[in-house]
Amino acid sequence: MIQKIYTIILLACVLVTSSCSLGLDPLDSYSDVTEGIDEKGNEVVFRDKAAVLSHLQTIYQQMRDRQEHWYLDLLLIAESHSDNAYAGTTGAEVLPFENNAIDGANSVLGRDWDRYMVDVARANRLIVNIDSVTDASLTSAERRQYKAEAQIFRAMVYFDMVRIWGNVPVVTIEGRDITSENITDVYNDYFPDQNTTEEVYQQIEKDLLEAVAYAPANNPANKTLFTKSVARALLAKVYAEKPLRDYAKVVQYADQLAADGFGLEEDFSNLFGMNANNTDAKMRNTRESILEAQFFAGSGNWVTWMLGRDLSNYNNQFSWAKWITPSRDLIRVFQAENDEVRFRESVVYYAAGWSNYYPSNNYPFMFKTRSAFNSIIKYRYADILLLKAEALLLGPSTNLTEAAAIIDQVRQRVDLPVLPAAVRNNRDQLLQALMKERRLELAFEGERWFDLVRWEKVEEVMNSVYGRDTGRRPQVYSFGSDSYLLPIPQGVLDQNLKLNQNPGY
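== RagB/SusD family nutrient uptake outer membrane protein ==
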C-alpha cells in the first residue's frame, strides 16, 4: 500500500511541482549549482545569483524549446475548433477538435495540462525561493525584477489554462520534500484543490499587478522579454474576459502600450514574412510585437513542419498531412472583403501528397509560421488595439467614433477602405465589423475560439458553420452552454480525486 502511495505521489510531482525528493524534474536535472545543502543541513535551491539567472534563463527557454502546448496545440484549439480551420489530418487526437467530439481521453489536452503545470512549477521555483538567496551581489532591485518576470510567465500560463479549462488548481507554492513521517501532511502540496475560474483570474491579476511595477521596461530591440509591456498587454486581455471584465481598464492598458511605443507595423508582411532569399525572417522585434519567441540558424522553429512547408528547407517533412488547414468559410470571408494583403500573409497554396480537404494540386496551408527562423508572436499590438475598440463598443462609455477609427486604422494598414457611414453610426453593425476584423487580422494566431467564447457566440457561429462549409467533417455533437470549456484530461482526474470534470463531458 505504501509503495502505491509513493508511486502516485511521484507522478503528481512531475505534474505539479519541480521540487520532489522522489524524482527529478522532467526538464531540468538537479546540480551542485542549483541544489545543495548549507552548513546547517537546510536545502539550498539557489546558491547564488548565477543559479537564479540560470533558472530564469530556463524559463525563457520554455518560449523557444517547448512550443507544442503554448503554440501548436493552442492553434488547434483556437483555429480548428472554430470556423477558421479544419483539423488538417484525420488522426484521432486532432480530428475531434474539428467535429466537436473532444473528450477527457484526448491526448493533446493531456500533454498540454502536464506541460502547463510544469511551467507553473518552474515559475514557482523562482518566485518562492529568490528572497532566500544569500548572495549579497543579488540586489533587492534584481530580486524584484526576476520575481516579476517569473510572475508574468506564471500569469501567461494560467491565462491559457483558464481559458481552456476554467476551474483549475492555482498552485503558488513548491511541494515539500516527502518523507515517511510527513506523507499525510504534504498531501495537499501534490494533490491541490480545484479553484474556481474567478479565483484563477484573480491570481493572474495579482501576479500581473505586482509584476508591472518591477518588470523591465519594453526594449524595442528585444521583444523576447517578460516586460512591463507584456504585463500590460495581458492585463488588457484579462480585463476583456467575463470573470474580471472591466472595459475601462482594457482602454487604460491599451493606451499605456501606445505610450510604451507600440503601434501598427506599416507593412503587414514585416510581421510574418521572410527575406528575399528565404534564408531568414524578414524582421524581428517590430514595433507591433509585444512578446515573441525568436529562432535562428542552428536552433530553428520545429513546429513549421507541422503546419506546412518550411521555406528555409522547402521539402523538409512535407510527405504527410499537416495540421490547421484553412477552412473554406474563412477563405470566403477574406475574398468577400477583398482582403488581399492579409490573405496573402495568412494562407498559401502548394501541391501536396494528400487530399483530405482540398484537391492535392492546389492545397491551402496556414502561412503565418512559414520557416524555421520565423518568430512566433505570442502577443501583438493589433490584438490589443482591437480589444480597445471592443471596449469602446461594449463598455460603459460607448464611443462609436473612436471605435470606428481604430477599425479603420487596422483596415487601412492592409489597403482596405474605411467603414461606410451606415456602419460607423450603428453600434450593432460596428460590432459585427469589429468581429470580422479580428477574425481576418488575427487568423491563425490562436484567438478565434476564445473570441467566440468571450462574445458568447459559440452556439450561433459553430452550429451553423457545418451547413455552410461543405469541407468540414460531420459534426458529432452540437455546441451548447457546456461547450465553452474543454474537458479536463481524464488521467488528471484519476490522479487527483479533488478535481471535477467540466459539465458536458
